[in-house]
Amino acid sequence: MTTPDERETDALLAAMLAPPARTGDRGFAVGVERAIDARAAYTRARARFWRSFAFEAAAVGALLAALWLLSSAPLLAPYAGPAHWGLAPPLLLILLLWFGTQRWRQT
């Protein structure tokens, strides 16, 4: 059983050792919320970029396949010699990279 002296000592020690009462730091909490929102927006923009870039890469691949199929057609074979194929892949790659940089700048 505790005596009144011990209870007073316990209360005095609890008051002395208790952390000081502080108000919440609202500015810090708002900053953290903004950082979380900015991170989520960046993640969504990045996913949107890669999705559109993949679509454009598929479109350029389809264009390359169409050029290849057209060049193998008997009617167009004389016009599409091996020299024409030397420029097609690098030009389509440049087109693809241009699409990618334009999409990246929009996000």
What does this structure look like?
This protein has 107 residues and is mainly alpha-helical. Helices cover 78% and strands 0% of the residues. It contains 4 helices and no strands. The protein has helices spanning 4-17, 26-71, 82-85, 88-106. Helix 2 (26-71) packs antiparallel against helix 4 (88-106). The longest helix has 46 residues, at 26-71. The chain is rod-shaped. The mean pLDDT is 79.
Topology of this structure?
Elements: H1 4-17, H2 26-71, H3 82-85, H4 88-106
Features:
107 residues; 78% helix; mainly alpha
Low-confidence stretches: none
How do the SSEs run, as a string of H and E?
HHHH
Number of strands: 0
Average residue pLDDT: 79
Discrete helix count: 4
**Percentage of β-strand residues:** under 5%
**Mass-distribution shape:** rod-shaped
Radius of gyration, whole Å: 34 Å
Termini distance?
Answer: 70 Å
Largest sheet: none
Secondary structure class reads mainly alpha
Proportion in helices: over 70%
Quick structural gist:
The protein is mostly helical and 107 residues long. It has 4 helices and no strands.
